[in-house]
Amino acid sequence: MLWLNGHIARLAKLKMTRTTKAKSWITSLLLISLSLSLLGLSPLSQAQEDSAEEIDAIFKKFDQGEYKDQQAIKEALGYLTANITADDMERYLKLQTVLCWNNYDITKQQALKDAIAFADLKLLTEGVAASAEATTDLKLCRAFMHQLLGKVDIALEEYNKVVAEAYLIESPRLIADSRSLRGAIYSFQGNFAQALEDLITAQHLYESLNLQHWAIYNLTELATSYRRFGDPQTAIKYYRKLEKGFEDTGDKDGANAIKTEIGFALEELGEYEAALKKHKEAYQYWRDTLGEEASAHTAVNVAGVLIQLHRQGEAKPYLDAAQKSITPDQGASYSFMRLYQAQSALTNGQYQQALDYIDMAEETFKQIKNARGLEQLHMVHSQIFVAEKDWKQAYEALLSYIQTHKSLDATQQTNRTTEMRTRFNTEQIERENQQLLELQKIKENELVILKQNKYLQLAVIVLGCIIMIILSIVAYKQSQKSKLLSILALTDHLTQLPNRRYTYSKGEGYFKSKDEGHQPLSIILFDADHFKKVNDKYGHDIGDKVLIALANISNGLMRKQDLVGRVGGEEFLVILPGTTAEQALNVAQRLVTTVESSNFDDVYMNFKLTISAGIACTDGDKSFEHLLKRADDALYRAKSSGRNCAILDT
């Protein structure tokens, strides 16, 4: 079976029309615009202002995958390039990612290399480097181009990094895109446990984001995974619905690509004549619309079925046509083409030629880590040696086949258990997440199919206890992920000050760098006096408002280079780089005085508040923690001294 499974063919015309959300520069642009407007100027030309609405509409079409015609894509990219400048940073960043995904003919090897070079160049630019989402999206585009070049290991390694980065920046779209692409590779390599987890996660995200176009394509990969997993009946149910969905929307490329997938499923059911019909329809379509080169992959599919039907004579023209366009760097198509050529040569008694083809196929199968392909190859290899009466090598090849077959069988039960866990977890997420948008009808059909799967229903009974354990593990993992995302947020949600993690991190950084610049570093640790009584007497709502007011007062008193962070309930930490102990004490005393004299009537009528502060300045401290402890000790002494004061640790 070919990994591309028509994937290259359908993408050849559609490509991957996507975009991403870049870091926002809107605030800066608005300030510049306001300043220049006061002078009677404008940072944007009238033409740019007039076209902004149309530009955003084009981006939305790319994001939704609405462009299906290459000429329309070319015209849209031309318009965007002509009307977006680097001054409009938000749209400029979007344009770079759109260009990477859509401006290159992915059926051409050189174009794929050009796309990789484009991504590499853009990743070095200052504007892109400042945007985590643009950077991550360009890396994803680059990985996909490596995948199409047959560099699967490089692609998979980069997909892993992109998935991690997408979670760090909390971008659902990039999480969906990267896990969908990674899941397709895992599926091809026979790693169905990982494939199903990735593809089902991506499916859920696409549907919740209402990205129906990409949900359909991801569902295609999901169906293909079920086919490879050994459940072609379920796969065909998916494919039939997908085929109708593509036809209803007028997406001929998508509908035709599904014919290839149905053909593969029919092959696995042993219905070779029906499979041949589907593959021939797909081949003829791509040949008529895109030419011989683009149809080469489906030509290999046709030849494979003809060989199964022992019609090698009819298969040869298809293999000859494919050989003109398919090169070794197109790993999946190339490996199966050589395998089928070996089978054809074996039938014609050309044993040495068959062995040469086997060697070519084996090298590529190993390179792309396709265990299922190697399993077929070892059997053909053994048959060649049997035909030559070389019983020893025939036996060794047969042993390799058995070993590969056992290896695949050994993972099957684990994969099925994981499949059940993944399916069950998806249903749990669906029930619990009340904010999701209305799921597509195809998703509802998918759930029905999953529930009706007889084999898995029996597995539920047998593995009930195990599933309960797995469910607990999944719930724990989800909890850990949520905690991780919370930890990664660098801003305190209430006061909008830096949170404890970020504040301590900056403090560590200043502490390590102060020796290099020989600059003193001072810190002020302060908190609200008797804050528990505030909450008890006025309620937590008033307490929150007090903390917000305290944050605003303290932040307003500091210099630009100073940092104020909330490090506890009512506890705040001020980091003062380049500040002596005497200067820090003055700052702290001014802070204490300002808070005491501040008007808190907007919080609560006649409300008064005081704070206590502890100050410490670097003086032989071995670590930032030690400096922090000194400030904490000073704060304790301030509390013991009657509060509403600042004490310097000496």
Automatic annotation (TrEMBL):
GO terms for biological process: cell adhesion involved in single-species biofilm formation; negative regulation of bacterial-type flagellum-dependent cell motility. The chain crosses the membrane at residues 455-476. Residues 519-650 form the GGDEF domain. GO terms for molecular function: diguanylate cyclase activity. The keyword Membrane applies. It catalyses: 2 GTP = 3',3'-c-di-GMP + 2 diphosphate. It comes from the Bacteria. The keyword Membrane applies. One of its GO terms (cellular component) is plasma membrane. PROSITE patterns: GGDEF. InterPro entries: Diguanylate_Cyclase (IPR050469), GGDEF_dom (IPR000160), Nucleotide_cyclase (IPR029787), Rev_trsase/Diguanyl_cyclase (IPR043128), TPR-like_helical_dom_sf (IPR011990), TPR_rpt (IPR019734). Its EC number is 2.7.7.65. It holds the Pfam family TPR_12. Keywords: Membrane, Transmembrane, Transmembrane helix. Gene3D superfamilies: 3.30.70.270, Tetratricopeptide repeat domain. NCBIfam families: GGDEF. This is diguanylate cyclase.
